[in-house]
Write a structure and sequence with these properties.
Length: 221
Amino acid sequence: MEAARADIRRAAGEPPGKVVLGGCPLALAGWAARALAEARRSLPGLEVSVRAAARDAVVDGVALGEIDLGLVDGIVAPSDPLRLHDADFLTTAPVAEEPVALALPDEHPLATRSSVRLRDLADASWLDAPGIAAPLGELRAAVGTDHLRSALRYEGGDTRTLLSLVAEGHGLLLLPASALAGAPGVRAVPLSAPRLVHRTELVHGRAPGAAVSALAAALPR
């Protein structure tokens, strides 16, 4: 019912030039700044609030009308859509896909490998950071095993803190390769199997206003 009311509010029109952009931390870091710059060139008076949240919270926020445009991400097979809960009455569109890599400490025995297979890491200790990285449940499904075990759960949304936990040996992590570039004490090793990518999608209501449409149009697809 709340989602239906939100659709009615959208159809009635949003306040001119105001938009709430919500997104997962990595999706916001990769795309929000450049999209906002482009949108403000076409709408100079655009007023934006940016809200970082985990993927499910972003989708819920869009469905309930609390977020006008969402940027969500996850790890899937190439060209597969994200598995978003409760998104049946929303509009989604792909933004980007990029390779994923295994994040591990510089001194880790696998740090010098040219690539790794996820199945070979079933007995490794992992960081579970559902607010930033793919939840371990999704990785277990991708590998077809229940043996990926969590050594530490990180509930926050700060990528720098999460990578410092990797550098200190608290667990491994699978992230888009671009997020690992230049991270101190962390080595990025490409994933050879299974074939997985980090996918970013935008999500919004079915009757977006002018400001939401301008911001969505600024995202490359």
